[in-house]
């Protein structure tokens, strides 16, 4: 009889451990998605800044070339 109780206890502990593991995995996946989304937003911002800087550089080069030729 005592062996049966011990098996049930082990089974219950195993299920609790598996449930905690599933929850931890779910949370880990959620955090990873959030991190990736944050990185994607950062990439978009940096790409826009890069485009703006390229346009500014073009403009300054044109201005320099005009002044040089004057």
From TrEMBL:
SUPFAM superfamilies: Leucine zipper domain. One of its GO terms (cellular component) is nucleus. PROSITE patterns: BZIP, BZIP_BASIC. It is found in: Nucleus. It comes from the Eukaryota. Residues 9-21 have a biased composition (Basic and acidic residues). One of its GO terms (molecular function) is DNA-binding transcription factor activity, RNA polymerase II-specific. This is AGAP000237-PA-like protein. SMART domains: BRLZ (SM00338). Keywords: Coiled coil, DNA-binding, Nucleus, Transcription, Transcription regulation. Residues 11-62 form the BZIP domain. Pfam families: bZIP_1. Residues 1-21 are annotated as: Disordered. Gene3D superfamilies: 1.20.5.170. Residues 29-63 form a coiled coil.
């Amino acid at each position: 009889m005592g062996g049966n109780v011990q098996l049930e206890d082990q089974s219950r502990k195993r299920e609790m451990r598996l449930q905690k593991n599933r929850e931890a995995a779910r949370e880990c996946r959620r955090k990873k998605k959030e991190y990736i989304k944050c990185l994607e937003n950062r990439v978009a911002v940096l790409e826009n800044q890069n485009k703006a800087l390229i346009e500014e550089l073009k403009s300054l080069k044109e201005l320099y070339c005009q002044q040089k030729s004057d």
